[in-house]
Amino acid sequence: MHILEHLFLVGEFPERSRLLSGLTLEQVTLCPDGASHSIYEELWHAEAYQNSIVGDGDPDGDRFPSAVPEHEDEWQDLVQRFLDGARAAAALGQVPERLAAELEPGLTLGDELNCVALHNAFHLGKILSLRQQMGAWPPVAESSPS
């Protein structure tokens, strides 16, 4: 396993697909007392930043969504976009020449991907904390917490 697969998909804390599973629209749009953002807003922000580096997103785009999702499909689509982007980032580890390519003097794509992985970890940690606050961790189908 390449380090990027570890950082973007499976390592150091719960697998990303598991961490984002088993949530209802009501849960992902709830912003508990004291929280700055909902689960939806945290993931939307992380996906937008990740997409600005790995995909074709706007690096100067909105920092958080302007509206909450009205349908569960919108949440599921966001989760899928995030996971697809994470898989694309991890796949870049299979092409060392691309990782070494300078995006600007002194900054390689590998450096930038490490920044994205760190940014994702911060927001996914907030998502896990929000899930714990609302009693939505671990996902319903599981019985032992991580």
End-to-end Cα distance, whole Å, is 22 Å
Q: For the residues shown, what is the average pLDDT? A: 92
Helix-strand topology string: HHHHHHEEH
Counted by DSSP, the helix tally is 7
Shape: globular
Helix content: 55-70%
> How are the strands of the largest sheet arranged?
1-2
Quaternary assembly: single chain
Can you identify the CATH class? Mainly Alpha
For the secondary structure, the number of strands is: 2
What name does the CATH topology carry?
Four Helix Bundle (Hemerythrin (Met), subunit A)
Low-confidence segments:
none
Largest sheet: 2 strands, antiparallel
- Helix/strand-derived class? mainly alpha
**Strand-residue proportion:** under 5%
What does this structure look like?
The chain has a two-stranded antiparallel sheet with strand order 1-2. Helix 1 runs antiparallel to helix 5, helix 4 packs parallel to helix 5 and helix 4 runs antiparallel to helix 7. The chain has a single domain, classed as Up-down Bundle (Four Helix Bundle (Hemerythrin (Met), subunit A)). With 146 residues, the chain is mostly helical. 57% of the residues lie in helices and 3% in strands. The protein is globular, with a radius of gyration of 16 Å. A hairpin with a 2-residue loop joins strand 1 and strand 2.
Descriptors for this entry?
Four Helix Bundle (Hemerythrin (Met), subunit A); 146 residues; mainly alpha
Give the secondary structure arrangement, pairings included.
Blueprint: H1 3-10, H2 16-19, H3 25-29, H4 39-54, H5 72-91, H6 96-100, E1 102-104, E2 107-108, H7 109-133
Antiparallel strand pairs: 1-2
